[in-house]
């Protein structure tokens, strides 16, 4: 270990030729006789150690530095080191992808249901200056794509070939540990051959370069250690717990130093410089020189405008990198009677099973508003009807999907049936059927011939414009085994008139069976689809009938023929009225040019008001 004072007057200890891990750095510092109240801290709470992938670099500077960058059209080092310094840029995308990789490596066998219970947690630990929107080095931050910086360096200093990357050193400040990667031209290889090459395949390396990106594995990414990571192995979930007292430890980050000889500049397009420039609020700790003038945002806007007068876009403030992850602390108290659904609603709000629920064994209610979570009990081989409805008048005709399992992040998981504004666009099996009036927002799902394997959660999701506005309904289906013995079958005679359907049931042996329910249901569906003014509300068929049968004998045969003739006459009358109705549609108010909201209101049999103006 060596020590020196940098050009900002700060004492720095460093280890050359190595990216030193913290445990090794502690021992090296002890052997050197270094005193530190941060580095030697022990018994820290458990924290995650993810792997960050980044394709962006950032460079921070002061007002004088900004003027020099604009004048030189690029970056150079005014000192004798001939190094231009950049840092790895970390944003919400890098944090989220690191969390995903960390969870997959820790729980490789977790299920989709367990993954849906996992809440985002890594952003709570990324509190060191490496992740902050504030700056310790100045008030102006350039953020460039890594590919663009390497491409400019390769073109200007390497003759178009790939630059060489090496492990340069590890710097230790008062509370900061910096691992430095050196980038230089192949022409200067003799000057830096003593530094080890940066590898791309060492799983234990702190920083590597692979596939056009830097991979960084920090050991201390929190500025203040006041959280503890909890591994819940049984549920394959990670949780965060607050610790009673905060601990102050060192924090680490990675930097990239480009070798640019004295008098040379790493140049970029003038507009590109301005495009990638933002204002940074100062951090509570500053490394700037004492003679540097602090710039407010208004002063920064004036300076940037004077340096780039023709650039159209205003200067922006660097947004908090954790803003996309931070959640306000809100306490909700749910009040209601026992069994009213408080636990289910709480689980729905949290997005995980945090409260125990007692699922009712009875079928769901047939009227009233839908509960967020319902349980259905259906006999094996029967029909399961899962209900879902939304307001077409409020949201318009929307895309709807039914899926097996959770509702998913953006759309249903394991889609069974889905629709658009015009109707059903896909379904996986004919057993799944949508019932109800689509124009009225009724999107019920019928599952025919249910099996024991159909048990589990189902989700109905309605696409509502806006962020996080989708309407989601979760329903649990429980399929029970059918009884071993079935009751004796019944022969039912139905007498149909134009006003009602009456039912008489007598036990008897079956000779010939005619499935009238299927016939009438198909006719009713046809009428419902093709009629807008006439509703077949007067015809009723009991859903509980397994079949409708007739005994063939002489007296009943004549009665059946009479009933058939009456039904045929009714259908002919309805067909005649429908023809007249269609001709009326083509010639009058129901033309295809009518506004959709008027057609919708007429179909719903509601009064429609139009604003009519008379101009004299």
Report on this structure:
With 616 residues, the chain is α+β, with helices and mostly antiparallel strands. The protein has three domains: 2-307, no CATH class; 361-480, Immunoglobulin-like (Sandwich); 491-602, no CATH class. Helix content is 24%, strand content 26%. The protein is built from 13 helices and 29 strands. Strands 1-2-8-9-14-6-4-7-16 form a nine-stranded mixed β-sheet. It has a six-stranded mixed β-sheet with strand order 17-25-24-19-20-21. The longest helix is centred in the last third of the chain and has 34 residues, at 554-587. Residues 325-329, 358-372, 486-552, 580-593 and 603-616 have low confidence and may be disordered.
What share of the residues does DSSP label as strand, in percent? 25-35%
Mean pLDDT: 76
Helix content: 10-25%
Low-confidence runs of at least 5 consecutive residues: 325-329, 358-372, 486-552, 580-593, 603-616
Rg value: 36 Å
Total of domains: 3
With strands numbered from the N-terminus, the spatial order across the biggest sheet is 1-2-8-9-14-6-4-7-16
Quick one: biggest sheet? 9 strands, mixed
Question: What are the key terms here?
Answer:
elongated; nine-stranded mixed beta sheet; 26% strand; alpha+beta; 616 residues; Immunoglobulin-like; 13 helices; 29 strands; 3 domains; disordered C terminus
Quick summary of this structure?
This protein is α+β, with helices and mostly antiparallel strands and 616 residues long. Helix content is 24%, strand content 26%. The N and C termini lie far apart (96 Å).
